[in-house]
Amino acid sequence: MKRNIIPIFALGSIVIFTSCDELKQAANTISISTSTPAKPQLTNDEVVSGLKEALQLGIKNSVNLTSVTDGFLKNADIRLPFPADAMKVKQKALEWGLTSQVEKFETTLNRAAEEATKEALPIFANAITNMSLQDGFAILNGGNGSATKFLKDNTTSQLVTAFSPKVQEAISKVKLTDYWNPIVNKYNSAMKISGGDKINPDLNAYVTEMAIKGLFQMVEKEENKIRLDPMARVTDLLAKVFGSIK
Questions:
Q1: What spatial distance separates the first Cα and last Cα of the chain, rounded to whole Å?
Q2: Which residue among 66, 112, 126, 246 is buried most deeply as judged by most CB within 10 Å?
């Protein structure tokens, strides 16, 4: 009876160790089959093209949202307020009971921005087409707003030059000065009597600056949407480029 114990024990050990080897092999197989597939390698050309495509999409969407009635006026993030360097004018106008005129001016100020941005798409698109992104990967991995910031840093001066005459046309079209002149003329007349400083800010420069600033805010919002939401990557290139971000 005792003589059978050792062979049986040895047989059991063989079965156990064999089972362990099989389990290890199975575990390795599972590990290999369930490992995350390697992300596709990106070329610098793909990164640059993807960033440009994202900005072009962002600009198109931004212009479509801002160039309509109330696109600026009803958007709290980009609504043009009374010019900061003319706040004394606003305060005095409200004291004089010119509330309606102030409201009309602020409304028309935003109408000028809305009208001007209708001409913005080809200007922005041309700026994107001609820009060179030598550090494409750095921008891609630079976090939210990186591509928009790069575009802003490298195109704002050209955009101001190109945008300004469009804003002037918009100001004339919506008759912005018709609402501004009565307010500022009354203020300046009062300052002439009291000895205060007259004021008459450059509305063209103000609308140009604020319209471009508002558009960039909207472009950044669109860029970040593409970065964070796979559903916003509406082309294969966008999906590949932004899907590579860790």
A1: 66
A2: 112
**Tally of domains in the chain:** 2
Q: Are residues 31 and 49 in the same domain?
A: no
65 and 7 inside one domain: no
Does residue 62 share a domain with residue 31?
Answer: no
Cα–Cα distance measured from residue 102 to residue 100, given in angstroms and rounded to the nearest whole number: 5
Q: Assess contact for 146 and 209: CB atoms under 8 A.
A: no
Read off the pLDDT of residues 189-243 as tens digits, 9 standing for 90 and up: 999 888 888 888 899 999 999 999 999 999 999 999 999 999 999 999 889 988 8
105 within 8 A of 175, measured Cβ to Cβ: no
Among 38, 41, 56, 35, CA closest to 240: 41
Q: By residue range, what is the domain housing residue 185?
A: 42-243
Look up residue 239 and give its amino acid.
Answer: A
- Show contacts of 39-45: CB within 8 Å, 24+ apart: 39/243, 39/244, 40/240, 40/244, 42/137, 42/240, 42/241, 42/244, 44/136, 44/137
Residues 54 and 170 in one domain: yes
Model's pTM, two decimal places? 0.78
- Please determine, for residue 55, whether its predicted confidence score (pLDDT) is greater than 80: yes
